[in-house]
Write a structure and sequence with these properties.
The protein is of the alpha/beta class. The chain has 13 helices and 5 strands. The protein has helices spanning 2-5, 26-40, 56-66, 83-93, 102-118, 135-144, 164-169, 175-179, 193-206, 217-227, 231-247, 255-264, 290-300; strands spanning 45-50, 71-76, 122-127, 156-161, 181-187. It binds adenosine-5'-triphosphate and magnesium ion.
Length: 319
């Protein structure tokens, strides 16, 4: 296949959310800081939204691999669950046994959370693709967010989902849940050609590339325009461009190869209102001021000196 032809040890642009390939854009860093802060400080409910393919699942997987062993995580990625199925999942993942009815489960869960909390252990419920949760399950999540001590929530809950999740949470019937959201953040697409270039090079290097000029500057420029900075779109274009380049014996991927691939995949650039004429994306406002973000990040990484990956391990027991 093309990997050998381009001097790569593995395929650099797979569509799976493999955290080994993560590249931290400023937006991804900010979201990580929010998640870190939310879990460490016992904030309770945190909501992360982002367009399709911007990296929500990737960031969750990256985080879960780095949580300390003292954090117990229940990760639910199938939102189309009924209320009983949801509780069954929660109970299994958080190792709550000996219950038959919902009230018995809530009692046992409360005891387990209280006991963990008093021993300084953290418990986290993560629901990915949360835009698909039914209002009934969301109402149960609200109930779960009530487990708290005088000073902190005993169950940290992270909901991630596509922008529709915001609309779901705006449902007047769910206003009690909405009021309990302690932190909200948005994963944005890559904002410009420079970030897109860094993203592509970062993935090539993880895949073992010896050269970083496999994509010509004009190819990268066109990739940004076609993909609108969305990582999954970038991966699709790059993977297929490498295949086409290999078939044509081209060691450097030119803009014309990207044009061909974009046409085949129906991904030619469209001038959306969110794009300025020079291709720069109008960035939505930050959730925090830069000073506020710096403080949060400093708080979350105060003990990172000994950590080579610049990530302070947050206290995970199992996943
Ligand atoms: N920051 C990043 N660094 C490296 N690769 C990324 C990053 N963000 C996304 N990707 C890649 O883009 C693709 C889509 O990512 P992912 O599945 O995490 O997106 P998502 O937001 O969960 O999408 P969906 O809304 O469909 O669930 C994956 O191949 C992933 O590896
Ligand atoms: Mg996902």
């Amino acid at each position: 296949m093309y990997a050998e032809f381009y001097g790569l040890k593995e395929l650099p642009f797979a569509l799976t959310p493999d955290p080994r390939f993560i590249y931290f854009t400023p937006s991804h860093t900010e979201v990580m800081a929010n998640l870190h802060y939310g879990i460490e400080s016992g904030k309770g409910l945190v909501v992360v939204t982002g367009e399709v393919g911007t990296g929500k699942t990737t960031i969750l997987r990256w985080m879960m691999q780095r949580l300390d062993r003292t954090v117990l995580v229940a990760y639910i990625f199938n939102p189309r669950l009924s209320v009983p199925e949801f509780y069954q999942h929660v109970a299994t993942l958080l190792d709550v046994q000996k219950w038959e009815t919902k009230s018995e489960l809530l009692l046992e869960l409360g005891r387990a959370l209280e006991s963990r909390h008093s021993r300084g252990l953290r418990t986290v419920l993560i629901v990915d693709e949360a835009q698909g949760l039914s209002p009934h399950v969301l109402e149960e999540i609200r109930l779960l967010s009530n487990f708290e001590s005088n000073t902190a929530k005993q169950l940290q809950i992270i909901l991630t989902g596509q922008p529709e999740l915001r609309e779901v949470l705006n449902n007047p019937d769910l206003r009690q849940l909405k009021q309990r959201i302690a932190l909200r953040c948005v994963i944005k697409a890559l904002p410009n050609v420079e970030e897109t270039d860094r993203y592509i090079i970062s993935r090539l290097l993880v895949a073992g590339a010896e050269r970083t000029d496999i994509f010509s500057p004009s190819a990268v420029d066109y990739i940004f325009r076609c993909s609108e900075g969305i990582p999954r779109n970038i991966n699709n274009l790059c993977d297929n461009a490498l295949l086409a380049g290999y078939a044509a014996g081209e060691t450097v991927i030119s803009r014309s190869i990207i044009e061909e691939v974009a046409e085949t995949f129906d991904m030619l650039p469209r001038m959306s209102s969110a794009m300025k004429p020079d291709g720069e994306r109008e960035a939505p406002a930050n959730a925090f001021t830069s000073t506020g973000r710096a403080e949060l990040w400093a708080a979350g990484t105060a003990a990172k000196e000994n950590d080579q990956e610049n990530v302070r391990p947050i206290p995970i027991e199992s996943t």
